Amino acid sequence: MPAPASVVCVLIFRKAARRLAALCLNIPELAAAISTRIILGAVYFLVLTPTALFFRLLHGGAFNTKPGPAATYFEEKKHLFAPADFEEPW
Fold first, then answer.
1. Is it the case that residue 4 has pLDDT exceeding 70?
2. Gap between the Cα atoms of 42 and 58, Å rounded
3. How far apart are CA 65 and CA 20, in angstroms?
4. Count of helix runs (H) and strand runs (E) in the chain
5. Which of 10, 43, 73, 87 is deepest in the core (most CB within 10 A)?
6. First to last CA, the chain
7. How many structural domains are present in the chain?
8. How far, in Å, CA of 18 to CA of 2, rounded?
9. Contact of 40 with 49, CB cutoff 8 Å
10. Cα–Cα–Cα angle for 32, 26, 24, rounded to 5 degrees
11. DSSP symbol at 83
12. Considering all CA atoms of the chain, what is the largest pairwise distance in Å, rounded to the nearest integer?
């Protein structure tokens, strides 16, 4: 259909054209939302989960959970803070 004829059709059938445009714009948004969740879920379960399990097998976890002589896991730091410690905290 030539361009002038499509403009005339849009002017005549304005309500139908708006609905068609809304449908054409909402379908890609829905597809993007679904595909993004699928891709991120696949990355999480296929990459991050096996990596974390492998790390935990090798290192035994990220926390210091080895039993010590005390009944607590709290480690007391015996450090006297000086003004130089607060100048560059990172």
1. yes
2. 24
3. 61
4. 3, 0
5. 10
6. 66
7. 1
8. 20
9. no
10. 115
11. G
12. 87
What is the span of the domain harbouring residue 12? Answer: 3-86
Residue carrying structure tokens 């003004």: 83
- Rounded CA gap, 45 and 39, in Å? 10
Q: What CA–CA distance (Å, rounded) separates 28 from 26?
A: 6
State yes or no: pLDDT of 35 exceeds 70. Answer: yes
Q: Cβ(17)–Cβ(10) under 8 Å?
A: yes
- Asked if 64 and 56 touch (Cβ cutoff 8 Å), the reply is no
Pairs from 22-31 (Cβ < 8 Å, separation ≥ 24): none
Residues constituting the chain: 90
Structure tokens at 70: 């005390």
d(Cα 71, Cα 57) in Å, to the nearest integer?
26
The pLDDT tens digits for 56-81 are 888 776 665 666 666 676 777 888 88
Q: How far apart are CA 5 and CA 39, in angstroms?
A: 42
